[in-house]
Each structure stands twice: as structure tokens, then as C-alpha cells.
Amino acid sequence: MFESYTIKDIAKALGVSTSTVSRALKGSYEIGAETKRLVQEFAEKVNYRPNPIALSLKDQKSHSIGVVVCEVANDYFSQAINGIESIAYNLGYHVIITQTHESFDRETVNVQHLLSRHVDGLLVSLSTQTTDTSQYKYLHEKGFPIVFFDRVATDINTHRVVANNFKGAFDATELLINSGFKKIAHLTSSNNLSISHERFDGFKAAMDKHGLAFNPGYLKHCEHGGMIYDEIEFAVKALLAMDDSPEAIFIAADRLTISCVSILKKLGVKIPGDIALAGFTNSDVVELFDPPLTVVRQPAFQIGQKATEMLIKTIESKWPVEEFTTERMETELIVRSSSQKLY
Amino acid sequence: MFESYTIKDIAKALGVSTSTVSRALKGSYEIGAETKRLVQEFAEKVNYRPNPIALSLKDQKSHSIGVVVCEVANDYFSQAINGIESIAYNLGYHVIITQTHESFDRETVNVQHLLSRHVDGLLVSLSTQTTDTSQYKYLHEKGFPIVFFDRVATDINTHRVVANNFKGAFDATELLINSGFKKIAHLTSSNNLSISHERFDGFKAAMDKHGLAFNPGYLKHCEHGGMIYDEIEFAVKALLAMDDSPEAIFIAADRLTISCVSILKKLGVKIPGDIALAGFTNSDVVELFDPPLTVVRQPAFQIGQKATEMLIKTIESKWPVEEFTTERMETELIVRSSSQKLY
DNA sequence: CTGAAAGCGCTAACAA
DNA sequence: TTGTTAGCGCTTTCAG
Questions:
Q1: Computed from CA positions of residues A238, A243, A247, A250, in that sequence, does the dihedral angle turn out positive or negative?
Q2: Model confidence over A199-252: pLDDT tens digits?
Q3: Which of A60, A78, A315 to mutate against chain B (most B CBs within 10 Å)?
Q4: What homologous superfamily does CATH list for A7-50?
Q5: Superfamily of domain A56-162+300-329
Q6: CB-strand contact A6/D, under 7 Å
Q7: B62 touches strand D (CB under 7 A)
Q8: Would you say the pTM of this structure is higher than 0.70?
């Protein structure tokens, strides 16, 4: 079963040459119907499977794609990876997953490692620390297929798949405003990330639309994207300690949202009584929280799928791909009680 | 960068033969110090990386391992996969992940697919539907490396890595008993799973130790392991509808625990006032639940690591491995308010 | 219509 | 100490 037949075994068994077997197997028109039938039946019988490694060596494609994400054990990314796997599996590709743990150095090493593994393309979501995207730029200019998703490189013209972060943030902020809040803070991830900018813009646009002033002191960045608990705690405490402290917080990142709830509870701050919350997260259990969380949910699975489709299409393209698109998928605002105004 | 140098390129550039390069690169003693230095320096300079595909074809090892789990987007398994990746990455192995979605047919197809990909070994956690383990038995008898983790095949003598499910269940049950509950139900996954048995045994042992009768009507199996919400709802409702309905439930599976909370809340049943809960889960956010959940947490990351270590050791063993061990890792009981007795 | 042979990158037995 | 060569499994010219 695992010591599989090779084309040579079949050739020997049938008394033909390996090239005949090879051709017969792919139904080449230049093979006699009888020979073809014989070969195909035999191959079927012994459950012949071509050795993918030999194929890879031959045509210089590894049929594997490299994935660079910050963390696997994370709701958003595990869902995205689920989508990636589902497409890759069906199209006959391996998926090699690497984690940056939000470190640029680790990210660089991972990319090198993936290249040394001869992956046919890369699916990348940048780390919070990444400001230098030159390694990707270099590869991309050489024609190497790269699709960014979620945290994209804005200075490289490649395929990109992202959620509609602007609208997601806009909707959540507007919900808070419509609930009756005016003093709304914004807790977000590293300023390096594309998603931070887009979500901030959405937040700001909603504030502007409703004629609300944006207090710069209400903007808190967590440069490590939530990897460091103290950093988040520091930011949250700073918001609470302000003279004119906010009534609500719109949080722009998965881990930050969860941690923020945890910190506020630890501090004995009532949600939403003392401070209301709405935030991005892909956790499916936040409806069971105390209080149930109002969240912006991204179609992570679909984003993973789409990115993989685009990548494999690029890899398999007969011609160098010159046209690049940015796919934007809609988020979902799920309203629960953490964003309510209590009287 | 991605069009890498081959040994041939180096040989040509240096005017030596490919075998010299090959040998020099691995520091063979039969190569002149000077030549060796030359080759190594040049290789270093051009950032030479051996083509793993060629190596694989040569020594008939793909340097990849196949993983079979029910679901990736699941706290326990994403943590376990994290552990698997961390070890595999360091030891130079690819990880190919497949999901069964708790279907036996899908599991069979996945194993076949992984074998056709020529994986060097398998890391398996069985689906809830799996009762026939003959495909694994066959492979194992042929000497193919397989390590089971979590949901193991008890009828095959292979390496296994599991949590101490008995003790985890025992501790959680005893906690409920010590909290003052006597009528304790047990909600669990498919009876096919090894973990269901072990956890039931732990539950039963705690009941016995404290002289509590076990009411067979209090035992509810969810044959689909939580994939089907209705099935869980049915079980929970049945427990609630009993004449002598339980005061507490000990839940033996990750997804079941979360769903059970969700169902009880939907039904307006107070936790822990109307019914107390303790359950297995690896979600890290259950402390934010209403109420915070008392849980048994498994060292999923370490289980993944250990299983991978054992698998790769088996793969790389010079001699056929005949001795198989079962590693058992301790669980952690985290006490929160869902298991409290309210007066 | 079918076979022989080269070649993908690398290693290792065998020669020199 | 170094080079030549065969071979891992497969495809694909090139011959026949």
C-alpha cells in the first residue's frame, strides 16, 4: 500500500517500455487502444499513483505553497488556514505553515526557509513588526507568485485579499454612536499594519459623519499586536485614567478585543455600564461572554480560500501575470450587549 | 534568490566535479582542506541550499508527515498543530494537514491521499465515526510509522500520546462532588472514542469513591462529537426533562462544553444556579464567560510536540521499531464559578 | 504506434 | 584526494 508501484514495475509486468506506460496513462493519442486499455487497467488494479516527488523534480515545481502568518492558534488564522487547506488540498498542493510570532526576523527566516523548500508561491500576512518588505518586492519583481492577505504590503503591487476593514470599522463605530456614545476611544494594533490604517480610517469616517470630534488621546496603539499583555493593559489603563475618559472603545484587532475584556473585568470596570465595547474578533464564543460581545467578524475562511485560489492561479498561469487585483470581502457586524448604552 | 544554485553550478564555477562539491559540503574527510574551504565559501556566498525534492527522490523519503484530525479551527487541535509544526519545522519536515470533519469515509480518503503523497509517517487522531482501524493496522504491520494522539486506536500497538483523561475527568467530577453535588450527569462524545471511555471511567471512579450511585439515564452520548448542534441540544434537553434531573453536568469534550453552555443559556437555565458545569475544553477565553467556566485543560501544544518527536524518531530509526510506548500528559483543572454550589 | 535515452538535483559506489 | 557514473521516478524528445 505504501510501497507503491512505479511506472517501471508496470512496464516490466506488461512487457512494454516505461514511456509507453507514461503515455498510456495520460491517454496520449499516439498509443494503441489495446495497449492503452491494458496499461490503464493494470494501473487501476494495482492502484498506481505517480510519485509526486519525481514529478516535482522533473518539472521544477514542488506543488507546495508557503504560508506566513503570525500565529496558528488564533481564531482568525486557524479559520483562514482552514480555507487555505481546503483549496490547496483539492488542487493538489501541500501547504507549509510558518509562524512569525509577530517578529520581523522570524518572518525573514521563514520566507528563506520556505524558498529553500522550493515552494511554488507564498501566502503572506505580515507581522506587526514588519516595515521592510524588500524581500517580497525582490521576489515579486522576479515573477515569484505572492498573494498577501489580511495584513498586506501596500507598497507592492501584488494580489491581495482583505476584509472590507474600512466598512467593518465604520459600521461598528457608527453603532456605538447610534447607541448614544460620543466619547469613543480606538484601541488598535501596530501602526505598521495595513489593517490598522484601514480600520482607523473607518472609525474616523464614522466620527466625522456624525460630527464628533476625534480626541487624539483616545487613540492607543499596541505595537506588538496583542502578543504582550502588559502593553494592552498599559493602554487600557491609560484610557481609564484620562480626565475625560471615554465612554466606549472600538477595538481593531482580535487578540486585543479579548484581552481588553479580560483587563477591564480584572479592574472591576463594568461593561457596558462603565465602558461599552465593540471590536474585531473571529472568535465564535464571544456570545457567551459576560457581557456578550458586539463584534465585527471577518470571513476568514473565505479569505483563505480566495487567496489560495488566486495564488494557485498565478502559479499555474502559462504567462507571466501582470495584472493584480485586490479582493475585498465584506465583514459582518454582530450586535450584542457590550455596545449598549445603559441608562 | 528563488532560482537557486545547484551543486552543478558550483562545480562548474569552481572547475571541480559535482561529487567533490557534494562531499565538500558535508565536510567529508576525504576532501582536501583547501578544496573544501573553497567550495564551502562559495556555497555560503551564493547561499546554496540543497534541493529537498532531489534529496527526497534520492533517499525515498519525502520529509513530510501527514496529520489526520477532525478539524483545524478548534482550540485543542489548533494548539496541537502548533506543537506539531514547531517540532517538524525544526527537524526539517513538512506537515500536511487533513481534516475528517468527523467522517470515517473522509478519514480513509485522507490517509490514502497522504500515502500517495509519500508521507514518511502519520500523526492521527481518529474521527468519532471510526470503528474500523484496519487501514492503520495494515500500515503499522508493514512497518509504516504511525503515532496516534488524543483519540487513539486501542487495538493497535503503536506509539500513543494522550492526556491523562482518567485523572482529568476524575478531578473535575470530584470537584463537583466536593462542591456539594450528588446528582451529576455526564455528557460525552461518541462511544467509539478512546477518550470517551477514559473520561467516563474517571467520572465513574470519582462517583464510586464518594459512594454516589451513577444513574445510567444521566449518561448522554453525542455520537457526532459536537458537529451536530441538534444532537447536543437533544441530549441537554433530555437531561433537563428528567423527573429527577441532575444538579450538575460533567462534560467530556471541547465542543460539547461550549455548546452546552450556549444551549443552557438559550433555554434560560441558570449556570450554576440551576445546573452546575465542569467540562473539558482548551479554549482560553472561557474565563470571560458568563459564568466563568470550570474546565479541564489539556496540554495540547505539548501533546502535539511529543507525538511529533516520537513519530520522527520512529521514521529516522535505523532499525525497525518494535517497542511502543504510550505517553500520558497531565491535565490541568481550572476552577471557576460554573461549578459552584449556590445556597 | 512504441522504445531508447536524456535529464531534473543529488548521493555514493567505484575508479583513478 | 578527486572524478565518473548510475540511479531515484517520471516525462519527453528523438528514433525507429
A1: negative
A2: 999 999 999 999 999 999 999 999 998 889 999 999 999 999 999 999 999 999
A3: A78
A4: lambda repressor-like DNA-binding domains (1.10.260.40)
A5: Response regulator (3.40.50.2300)
A6: yes
A7: no
A8: yes
